[in-house]
Amino acid sequence: MSDKKKVKRFDFLEHGKASGSGSEDGLPQVGRFEHLEIGQIRKPLPATQSAPAPERTVCGHCGQVNEPERQTCWACYKALGPQGGSQARKPQGTKPQPGAGQEITLVIDGLTYSSTDPNLPPDIASLMGRIKTEGFSPGLLDEWREQRAASPGAGTQEVRAESRVEAFQGSRVSVIKLDGRVFLSDAPDLPPRIRDLFAYIDRNGVTPELMENLRAMGDARLRPSTTAAPSDGDLAFWREVEENRRQERTAEPPAAGASDAVMSWFYYLAPAWFLLETFLWPFFRAGLVTGGGTAGNLFFYAVEAAIGAGYRQRVPWIGQVALLENFFYLGTALHSAVIGPLTSASLIASGDTAAAASAANFPRAIPGFLFSIFFVYAFIRRQRSGRR
């Protein structure tokens, strides 16, 4: 057996084993990958939840609870201290205090702040000052959050934060970067495996079992969204996520395809078609429906001009209205083309000259007829491709 076949065989066995264990534990099945990073915006602990047991260690970098014998955090792989301890286990007064001239970088809810920025928001500047004098701890951050929420300008600050952070403001949004692609948990169209991973994190948080399962499939890391000791990887991750969101907010709407442009411009020019049909080209389009009368033509093109205005204003349901209008038009046109010639003699004999004229002048309406066929075909094709 060749080495390549052996690799494929053992890869299948390993993947099957991982899938089986993951299914038993209810873990999401992400499959193999090169690099995966989870940027979790931590949820506030419920008031009834007790603090971690004294023998457990809280990571000062990401806030996750670790067993006392661990030397590195299971979530972010940062060192917990020489004896497995962290800042949370050190007595008060021994926390490291940055020097007065030392730059401090904070990552709060996925946004990066630097103490060298002269335009820091007042609440962030206040937190920076406290860290310089008291050192950083998760307790300090929680106290600062409570004070900010109770301050008179809390409502204004929350609006400002929402406008800056958007999807990252709040506890329900997490970020996953998988092999260079960034996914947000509130995005409408997520791949199934990413959606399952977000659902697990929303229910259980980032658990040791999840990280162990992911690290069996590739290089997986946790990027805390709130930390005063961000690594270079943390800063690069959140800056990329923030830049990704900024580009989404400022991106121009996608340009319409060729078929969309033709359809919308045809309706934009409805007044011109009315003049063309009235003075130069009888039965160009409306005559098949109206019999060629000026009043009927005016009403027909007024409806199409209104549809054109809907396209210009990007009304969400205007496409469905135009589809119904074209179905009605095609039904009438086919009646004139098929039934009309068979009954034109009786129509003329009965005095229905308008219906007889519609049947006789059908060849002149071929441009408008072909447009309606093109519209219906393009609309249905676009709807079907959107469901895939």
Element layout with pairings:
Layout: H1 3-25, E1 35-40, E2 57-58, E3 65-66, E4 105-108, E5 111-114, H2 122-134, H3 138-150, H4 154-165, E6 174-178, E7 181-184, H5 192-204, H6 208-215, E8 219-222, H7 232-250, H8 258-268, H9 270-279, H10 287-290, H11 294-312, H12 318-350, H13 353-360, H14 366-387
Parallel strand pairs: 1-8
Antiparallel strand pairs: 1-6, 2-3, 4-5, 6-7
Helix pairs in contact: 2-3, 8-11, 9-11, 11-12, 12-13, 12-14
Task: Give a verbal description of the structure.
The chain has 388 residues and is an alpha+beta fold. The chain is built from 14 helices and 8 strands. The chain has helices at residues 3-25, 122-134, 138-150, 154-165, 192-204, 208-215, 232-250, 258-268, 270-279, 287-290, 294-312, 318-350, 353-360, 366-387; strands at 35-40, 57-58, 65-66, 105-108, 111-114, 174-178, 181-184, 219-222. The longest helix is centred in the C-terminal third of the chain and has 33 residues, at 318-350. The protein is elongated.
